[in-house]
Design goal:
With about 210 residues, the chain is mainly alpha-helical. A two-stranded antiparallel ribbon has the order 1-2. α8 crosses α10.
Length: about 210
């Protein structure tokens, strides 16, 4: 339930600044209001919506500067985690990332952007988790949740999406070879390129 509403925010189906109509969403998702309100509480903790008395739930609006600051944090967190992950990952964790990568490529081939995006996010989180630092994993997950819509938007451009898949192949290979310094730089470049594409898309839409 929470994931479905989160995806609606990520894809822009629920637009930033818009009030979420509970009645409409209950009918659309074929659920009762109780689980929907529980989902709202979680999404508010993630920073995706705000809930105000007599107003209800509203999709949070982020500025480009807000997102850019978060991207810098994500790059820093992955930079911390990359070399540790390369050193500390188990063979099972490396194999899991490779399997997720294969599924992600299949989603790309099928043109399933949301499925691709979920798998993409899982890969990044799994690599960070392999550093074996719970605090790092927690903060990274929280920051990723806040700016999902912007990271998703970067792949709406077909050329960028294709390049992102190629970048992920390099990331997977560096992780599998335990080349921590290379993994760190590949992750950094991947984020920078993705944010550049996303920012261009949002600025073009605004103009």
């Amino acid at each position: 339930m929470t994931e479905r509403v989160r995806d609606m925010i990520t894809s822009g189906q629920l637009e930033p600044g818009s009030r979420i109509n509970e009645r409409v969403l209950v009918e659309q998702l074929n659920i009762s209001r109780t689980p929907l309100r529980e989902a709202f509480k979680l999404l508010e903790r993630e920073g995706l919506i705000s809930i105000r008395p007599n107003v209800g739930a509203t999709v949070v609006v982020f500025t480009m500067d807000d997102v850019e600051a978060s991207i810098e944090v994500l790059i820093g967190l992955e930079s911390i985690g990359a070399e540790r992950a390369a050193e500390r990952a188990t063979e099972a964790e490396i194999a899991e990332v490779s399997e997720l990568h294969d599924r992600m490529v299949a989603a790309y081939g099928a043109g399933e952007l949301m499925d691709y995006f979920h798998l993409n996010q899982d890969i990044h989180q799994k690599i960070v988790d392999a550093a074996k630092n719970p605090a790092l994993s927690r903060v990274y997950a929280e920051e990723c949740a806040r700016i999902r819509r912007f990271r998703f938007a970067g792949n709406r451009d077909q050329a960028r999406w294709s390049r992102a898949v190629h970048e992920h192949e390099q990331i997977r290979d560096a992780f599998a070879r335990r080349e921590g310094a290379l993994l760190r730089e590949l992750l950094r470049a991947h984020h920078v390129a993705g944010w550049k594409a996303a920012r261009h898309a949002f600025e073009a839409a605004e103009s």
